[in-house]
Amino acid sequence: MEAPAPVTDPRFSLVIPAYNEESYLPRLLDTVDRAREQYDGGADAIEVIVADNVSTDQTALIAKERGSRVVTVEKRTIGSARNGGARAARGEIVAFIDADSQIHPETFNEIDRVLAGGRVIGGTTGIRFERRSLGLSCTYAMLVVMGVLLRGIRTFRDLNVDAGVMFCRRRDFEEIGGYSESVLWAEDVKILLDLRWLGWKRRQRLMRGTKAKAVFSTRKFDEYGDWHYFTMPLPLIWNTLRRRPDMARRYWYERR
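The structure assignment produced for this chain is given below.
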């Protein structure tokens, strides 16, 4: 009798945090399937984990039907959902993308290229908006300026913080403790700064942007208006300082 082939761990674990994403998740998974097909290491080298944040719609069912592993995460913060998916990950590299986004067909090949040689600790693929407007352009510029002012960095390029698919080696993700579960917003910025600090100690750098940019969903802008970010940050900060999470939770959870 022939011995069974050894079970090997995947190269990548792509984690998708999701709460009531039945309308957007299939679109994302279509792009993930294309990227897996184009990965030089083979589609089986990439596992897809949907971290279901106790959805009340068909999110979990859709994920299972599409072949994704589904992990249920009870605690409703975005950091908790991301960490819950990461705890189930078996890949050498963990990557994270929001359920309403879309990824580039060359995503996994590009991440492999960036991490080859060990000079980069991790980073983000970068983004492009799914549509354009003056309000969206001004919003992005405002967030750049805020990042510079809040961190005292000379230029945004020095900060090396961006969006899209966030990626790093799983051992490094575990070393920095993953995403913060105590913050209700900007957890994606904090983890990049934590990675940047770990990389600085090792003489590794953080990658901002690649040749495989993700498509950033503008659904919040469609709902609240293209200029709503100009009035939102100060109330968010004020409510956080007063330990009142209701505004952040309404923004990210209750309106879906």
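Interim note for the steering committee: Confidence is low (pLDDT under 50) at residues 1-6, 150-160. The chain is about 40% helix and 15% strand.
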